[in-house]
Design brief:
The complex is a heterodimer of chains A (82) and B (165). Chain A is an alpha+beta fold and 82 residues long. Chain A has three helices and five strands, in the order βαβααβββ. Chain B has one domain: Molybdopterin biosynthesis MoaE subunit (Aldehyde Oxidoreductase, domain 3, Alpha-Beta Complex), CATH 3.90.1170. The chains are: A alpha+beta (82), B alpha+beta (165).
Amino acid sequence: MIKIVFFAALREQLDCAELSLAADDAKTVDDIKQLLSDKNEQWQQTFSNASLLSAVNHDMVDGSHLVKSGDEVAFFPPVTGG
Amino acid sequence: MLKQATSIKDACQEISIQADDFSLADEVALLEKDNVTDGAVVTFTGRVRNNNNGNSVTTLTLEHYPGMTEKSLAKIIIQAKERWNIGRVKVIHRIGELNIGDQIVFVGVTSKHRQDAFAANEFIMDYLKVKAPFWKKEQITDDGQTSENWLDAKNSDTDKADLWS
């Protein structure tokens, strides 16, 4: 299984903090994004936002990053701390 | 001379993510305690403003990504130590609900001479702004109407961080 987590405005737009995916459903971060977009129109619109960032196991990665079973994948808007 | 590499785990000792306020005096005292080699102590404190983009801000809520926050800050501290000759580092970031004037963030750096501490402190702050997974939501009052919205990231912060690369 792959754990997917969402933060901040993205979490609120999706009304979802986390979910799980079967590991064989997706190979890369972009594949996961596509799978999530296919869920419905709301999710498709949300994931069409090009500024969304992604992380795998707490490291920022780009869409081509390979994902494996047991990984934690996060999607979130650009950060605004400090 | 090769500098000893700092691990993520070591760097995490220099980071605190907390809901509670912090004391600038206490943090400076810790940076200076039994530290006889460093002549420079540079600190930065960030506070909640009462205004943003012309709106009147009443409170601010800070969300973060536990685990990734610590790891990303640790990586920033390690980079700073590779780049400058610095002694002690402390980074504090508050989370949860904050009020106007509250302290949000603290970065403290010591070094033998001031240049390294000044540069490393600014570098850590600039990278924290664009790499550490924190998000601010502000509660604003406009003509008596209260609303809240997530802050947008600023291009100026990205540009500033890019200057170090």
